[in-house]
Amino acid sequence: LILLILTPLHATPAPTPLGNQLKHHPSPYLALHGNDPVHWQDWGAAVIERARAENKLIFISSGYFSCHWCHVMQRESYSDLAVADLLNKLAIPVKIDRELQPALDSWLIDFTERTAGQAGWPLNVFLTPDGYPLIGITYLPKAGFSDLLGKLQTRWNEDEEYLRATALNAFESLRPEPKTHSGRHPEAGMDQVLAKLMVSQAMQIADETAGGFGDQNKFPMSPQISVLLEIQASFPDEKLGDFLKLTLDQMSQLGLRDHVGGGFFRYTVDPAWDTPHFEKMLYDNAQLIGIYLRAAEVLKQPDYLQVALDTLEFVIDSMHNPAGGYVASLSAVDNMDIEGGYYLWQLDELKSILDENEFTVVSNIWGTKGTPYLEAGHHLKYVNTHEEAAQQLNIPVTDIQDAVSSARHKLSQARKHRILPVDNKVLAAWNGLLLNSMGQAVIKTGNDRYRDAAEKLYHLLSNQLWDGGQLHRFMHGGNAGGRVSLEDYAYVSQGIASWAKASGDLQARDTARAIALAGLQRFHNQNGWQLSEELIIPYDARELVLADHTMPSPSATLLGVLFNVAQQQHDDKLKGQVLPYIDVELTETVSAPLWYGSHILLIHRVLQKDKIL
Q1: From CA 494, how far away is CA 509, in angstroms rounded?
Q2: What are the E-state strand segments in 64-203?
Q3: Average of pLDDT values for 193-207?
Q4: Burial level of 571, CB count in 10 A (0-12/13-18/19+)?
Q5: Rounded to an integer, what distance in angstroms lies between the CA atom of residue 554 and that of residue 485?
Q6: Which of 136, 451, 573, 588 is the most exposed place for a label (fewest CB within 10 A)?
Q7: How far apart (Å, rounded) are the C-alpha atoms in residues 209 and 398?
Q8: Using an 8 Å Cβ cutoff, are 51 and 57 in contact?
């Protein structure tokens, strides 16, 4: 009797104490946080359930392996016991790899940009237990982050209902209004009108002195450049052509490009293309290969072909995963945690590696005279052409070329003694982008090395990441998995279609069709497109036309694959199925054409191939 009184008949067991779940995570980025004292959880429905049960906030921190400031915040805050204790008491902490959760990351970015005015990585968002976003921030030093945690804990304890209501109201106010299509089919001449609007908007923000867009950080903006090249090919304009050439010259000759090992960095921190953020991303290099291949033809610049092929050689040599496919990124920091340390050179290093003639030429060509403007050393970029150096040094151009080639080889060998961390997961979408450019390189050159690499990548995508019914987001350690998004279906189907064109493989074309149709079914309904089938949080906004960002619009890409396949197979039924999705959403494309270029290009291709719709 005493036991019955003291012991509840239906006692609810205490929840299992949280611990850090990330130590052996297949994402190299998340595994880096496996020893943090923060009780990091992997994202899933259990997070929401636990937050509700314990009446705690949810803290989602998004980043990626090669992000410099992500590592800084880990070192300063997430590795600190006192900060971790504050965070663990306030919230259910969640770490996500933005490359594995692109849809969730995109939604968090959108919220933070709208409420804080800017966003980036590390991206940190506090949500209520029901999943409504409350506060979004990027990097904060330890003192500022600790202060925020303390104030938020006090406010949550004292005024929880107000915070819940504030988050819900903000969520509702930021939710996009449902849209309906204009119902207009692409009409003759509409592509040229939209193209002119896009060029006009592009030139309003174009830097006609240094190339690129804007007057601060400089990104390649590959989707926009790619579409502008196609506009130049169809509707030539001298001013646009000059701007495209200037931009592509600056990107290939200055600090955005690695002139020793090859490949492009993600962006430069200045408007003059001098100093990069030193991470190298597969998606950037994959797109730039195709851009320089196409620009060589459209702008009649044969040198661009070599830039494209040098970049492809870099990817094959330096980004190939021994298990198959190509890795996501190379870190911005070396194994000594020095940003750019793998790429930078002190004068005494250069003098010890190069002979006197090579050092003289390199100093003239790559601007390595005097004290480096970066603490870790000189970043090599062209300050003189070979012809200018030959004139200044009074030696033949051929001698300049020989000295540069020899110096590049010696510096490449010296780099092999340095260590650069690698995010070795193989992402389906980004490898699809690469296969698309590889297919173009095979068509352009007929090179057997590129053909062999493309065929192997095709088999990995079609046999290992595609199981005949659905795609997997990534491979790591030989295992496929991850929550897929629309971009996986779009870029993989495009890459396989490119390989089908390069190889004449009709089975590959059928596979591209099957993947694209599966993507259409999974990620589109009567309300439009969504990047992910399920975000878990209460968010189901769909878009009629998806914009270009760092990669081309996945909706326009996927529809382009299906339309091209229908054309090639003379399949009027498939064409009739696809065309209604290409209806014009004029509000978006007219008001911001620079961000909807891939859709404008799709309209152009439809009008060129199918005059009567």
Answers
A1: 10
A2: 91-97, 123-127, 133-137
A3: 95
A4: middle
A5: 10
A6: 573
A7: 31
A8: yes
In the prediction, which pLDDT does 539 show?
Answer: 66
Closest-CA residue to 27 (of 1, 54, 59, 66): 66
Q: Angle at CA 72, nearest 5°, toward 71 and 77?
A: 105
Residues 6+ apart with CB under 8 A from 526: none
Which residue carries 């690695």 as its tokens? 258
Rounded Cα distance, 63 and 32, in Å: 11
- Establish how many alpha carbons lie within 13 A of residue 183's alpha carbon, considering only the half-sphere containing its beta carbon: 0
Q: Are strands 276-277 and 280-281 parallel, antiparallel or unpaired?
A: unpaired
Backbone angles phi, psi at 280, to 5 degrees: -115, 125
429 CB-contact burial (10 Å; exposed 0-12 / middle 13-18 / buried 19+): buried
CA distances from residue 350 to 261, 280, 338 in whole angstroms, order as listed: 16, 23, 19
Alpha helices in 422-523 (DSSP H): 428-445, 448-460, 486-503, 506-523
Rounded Cα gap, residues 510 and 497, in angstroms: 9
Copy the structure tokens of residue 530.
Answer: 């969504």
Q: What does the alpha-carbon distance between residue 125 and residue 234 come to, in Å, rounded to a whole number?
A: 44
57-63 and 91-97 beta bridge pairing: parallel
Q: What angle do CA 16, 17, 18 make, to 5 degrees?
A: 115
* Residue 429 in this model has a pLDDT that exceeds 60: yes
Q: CB–CB of 583/181 below 8 Å?
A: yes
Are 98 and 61 contacting, i.e. CB atoms less than 8 angstroms apart?
no
pLDDT given at position 107: 87
Count of residues making up the chain = 613
Is residue 340 within 8 A of residue 381, CB to CB? The reply is: no
Token pair recorded at residue 170: 């903000």
Give residue 448's pLDDT. Answer: 97
Q: CA-CA distance, 93 to 33, in Å (whole number)?
A: 12
Alpha carbon dihedral 448, 451, 452, 453, in 10-degree steps, equals: 120
Q: pLDDT (tens digit, 9 = 90+) per residue, 36-81?
A: 999 999 998 899 999 999 999 999 999 999 888 999 999 999 999 9
What is the pTM for the complete model shown? 0.92
